[in-house]
Specification:
Two copies of one chain form a homodimer. In chain A, α3 (about 45-60) packs antiparallel against α14, α4 (about 65-75) packs antiparallel against α5 and α12 (about 415-425) packs antiparallel against α14 (about 480-500). Helices cover about 35% and strands about 20% of the residues of chain A. Chain A contains 14 helices and 16 strands. By secondary structure, the first copy, chain A, is of the alpha/beta class. Mean pLDDT of chain A is about 90; it is low at about 1-35. Chain A is elongated. In chain A, the strands form three sheets. In chain A, strands 3-2-9-5-6-7-8-4 form an eight-stranded mixed sheet, sandwiched between helices.
């Protein structure tokens, strides 16, 4: 829609101004048609017309919105492993069956279950006031009677890692500031996330009693961002002090996850501003923390699966996914109810449109993504024998903004097929992007690691981290038009990929 | 600044297009210079130059920002009657003294004190999920063990008032939807506020066990808006059912305030959306409420006063105010730290600029405004003997948006003086507005009722109710440039009013 507008602009420019407009249009066409030294691939006119009709149907359809509204209203929050996530699985089975999917099933798995308890954080000196805070997933509860300690302020995670080891922060509460940068690609998330992932371990290794961080997120509301902390492995980027501590205190951490023994807590942006301001005044701060989250008994989660059966290539599976679980403080509208709605609606619209897909389209709604891709790893493990049949995989898990970038990571033979798909979705405002992409979305990581080819329909994420992992992740934040554009892009892409005469897998040498 | 830009636009139009631009400029000039059938008043060139220099100094000054930053950081939340409000009074005394004010003093008064306790609201059927909610000021705690009841849904406060009285809602929880409309003037607040003021009484009169309302506010964040409920008087607009109930249950309510016996609670916008959606599905809802707020022992509050002494008209007082208290969930940056900063900085800049004011400028930082204008009424009561000396009064209490509208409610003789002031602040983007205004701001109401002339520098309030009475009322929401524009408008206005040869008071017939 956006590019259609842009092309309209170019036509106007050409009419008004002559050559420059033409040159610009030509430049665009050249970029869109570029191939990487391999033969051009074209879909048939019938296939292209069918894909276009599918996209147009999707743009006019309320199906994804209705699915999203139902999930966020009738299920609401659905933390991985919680009873509410089980309610979501039952909802998903009913929803997939009602939408005509075949072989609808839950593939259950067991998982460690962490649950949020009440949290109270209060600055006690020099200027007593409550701070708005939330436990990070995997945070430990504090000692009976709470923590009352001085704050050790660090501008960045790197500063903390560079600080002396041993008991250098004995009894203190570590605070890490670091601001996330907003970007269309969401590229600020990774760097900002380091403190969330291993801040607890660097703090604990230095004798700290708790970790506070500025929320990983880009909004300025009084709603802290949660998200899970990480368990280290052999390649985790830790300071030597943390690595030494880990070896001493968690000797079997490569087999059994090393869990935090201290509360790990995010402050909202305005509260982090307050802490930063008081620090800059040269004041020493004290904080009181009453934290009550922690690990519970092993719980059950599950992946919910449904299929649109293929025809002559039915044994080749195109897996399109999203994750069904959400954080517990919002209703999981953008993360990842939107993805559930988008991939489900796209598959249903393909099934409804006639010209049955040659390959099987499998929708997988993963469980327990937020708490460590547990559904994704369970899926790859439990379906290991069948992974060779999964010829292509992708996930929608970046909110409900419009798709703007279309990347692929498939064989040289199949790359021109994706170029051709790119030409067919360009009118939706989508740029044909990387041809050597390695990612298909978080839950696709284990499949990609096992060699499954991937593609991705990247969404505009400039505002995504205003909502992601906060109580504010609710239905009203979703733009129905952008949601429908996603469905159009997925429906056209998946339909065309399902029909193409090609082998997506990288051929052995 | 804004009008300067607009005038620049007009000049450009005139240069490009001739006559229409000229006509528009002429039209503007006519409107700005209009007088209401009385003689034109002009300040001297020296006075006008001094006012302009004051405004320019204010636009470049960080003084208001520094005051606001200090208050919101070093005091933070300061609920009327709370220990933290006492901290704010001590802060205010230090701050006024440091800024060179004379006769700095606290004028204490006693007040009934309401305190927030923990609150938990959860939809239990048909779709169990937590709701983000806050107690309204004056809300009662619920029964031991909480409330578990069905929801009676009302689209509007009017619908509730029209519904049968008696025990028609026995044991139920009343929910009132009603959405507030955003407007530059904030005009949507009054109508939307009716449900907050007397919803408790209409619900209680029908046997309900609790009141839930959609937050009075215009944002879409998961942060409910608090605000105080009202105690009825003889002229309150109540249904006959509520009036009958009041007569029976609170026979002495005209002497002793009738207080709510049920919890009165606001839901955030997205949570209200959820309730509305489920209602529209035709589902019956149940809710669990654990509410623990309530009235405490009588507490002390106080108004903090400081002065810039006048010269030849020193016994005539221009009172400019703001309120020092805030709600307890934000840090009171826009409501009303901004007002504290604006009027204090304006008075200080006047004192610093030479040409000492003829009239005395008195800054009053009122206590306990949010909980019922208690400081304002105490001020008028305790200073009753001196009210005749207060020749003009105004308050800044509508956030930190730029001033756009300048109204006055003074004698016919003094109205041209305000027209002249209007001409002097028009370059700040301010329109000369009503000449028969009756309001000078909430805390000025008791003075205006006693005949004190008023003016008002109205601010753009389109976004004010996104923040007002929420946890999100924090420093980062304030635009320093808009804050400085306020100070410029107040400094120029108050300086000129202090110098004018006129009698602001309405003459007796």
């Amino acid at each position: 829609m956006r590019l259609k507008f842009l092309l309209g602009e170019i036509v106007t420019m050409r009419m008004n101004c002559g050559l420059p407009g033409l040159a610009l249009a030509f430049g665009l066409a050249t970029a869109a048609h570029a191939v990487q030294g391999t033969a051009r691939f074209d879909f048939t006119d019938e296939q292209e017309a069918h894909a276009e009709a599918l996209a147009e149907t999707a743009l006019d359809s309320d199906l994804a919105w209705d699915i999203l509204e139902s999930l966020t209203t009738e299920v609401g929050p659905r933390l991985g492993g919680s009873p509410q996530e089980a309610v979501a699985r039952e909802w998903a089975v009913r929803m997939l069956e009602a939408n005509g999917f075949s072989n609808v099933r839950i593939e259950p798995f067991d998982m460690p279950y962490w649950e949020r308890g009440p949290l109270h954080v209060e600055l006690t000196a020099p200027f007593p006031q409550r701070l708005y805070a939330t436990d990070l997933g995997g945070s430990a509860s504090g000692p009976e009677g709470g923590i009352d300690a001085g704050i050790a302020f660090f501008d960045s995670f790197d500063d903390l890692q560079q600080s002396p080891g041993g008991n250098s922060l004995n009894g203190m509460v570590v605070y890490i500031d670091d601001r996330m940068v907003a970007a269309q690609t969401g590229a600020g998330y990774g760097p900002a996330n380091d403190k969330r992932r291993f801040g607890w371990l660097e703090a604990q290794a230095r004798g700290a009693t708790a970790l506070l961080i500025r929320s990983v997120g880009t909004d300025s509301h009084r709603m802290p961002h949660t998200g899970t902390i990480s368990t280290p492995n052999a390649t985790s980027e830790l300071s030597q002090a943390a690595r030494d501590y880990l070896d001493a205190e968690y000797p079997d951490y490569l087999e059994n996850p090393a869990r935090s023994r201290i509360p790990a807590i995010a402050l909202s942006g305005p509260d982090a501003d307050q802490v930063e301001r008081i620090h800059e005044m040269g004041e020493t701060m004290r904080v009181r923390i009453d934290a009550n989250s922690g690990w519970q008994e092993t719980a059950q989660s599950g992946n919910v699966v449904g299929e649109i059966p293929g025809t002559d290539l039915a044994d080749e599976i195109i897996l399109i996914g999203a994750h069904l679980d959400s954080w517990d403080e919002g209703t999981g509208a953008v993360d990842d109810g939107a993805g559930v709605a988008i991939v489900t609606a796209a598959a249903r619209l393909i099934a409804d449109a006639g010209d049955a897909p040659r390959r099987t389209i499998r929708v997988v709604l993963f469980g327990a993504e937020e708490v460590g891709l547990l559904g994704a790893f369970a899926y790859a493990r439990e379906n290991a024998g069948e992974i060779g049949n999964i010829v292509l995989a992708s996930e929608s898990d970046f909110g409900a903004g419009p798709v703007w970038w279309f990347s692929s990571g498939v064989s040289d033979e199949a790359t021109p097929v994706f170029d051709a798909i790119g030409r067919n979705i360009t009118e939706l405002g989508i740029i044909r992007g990387d041809r050597n992409a390695r990612g298909g979305g978080p839950d696709i990581i284990p499949l990609a690691m096992a060699g499954v080819p991937v593609f991705r329909l990247e969404q505009v994420g400039t505002d995504y981290f205003d909502l992601h992992h906060t109580p504010d992740d609710t239905l009203d934040k979703v733009d129905p038009d952008a949601l429908a554009q996603n469905v159009a892009a997925w429906a056209a892409t998946v339909y065309l990929a399902a029909q193409a005469d090609t082998d997506f897998r990288t051929q052995d040498e």
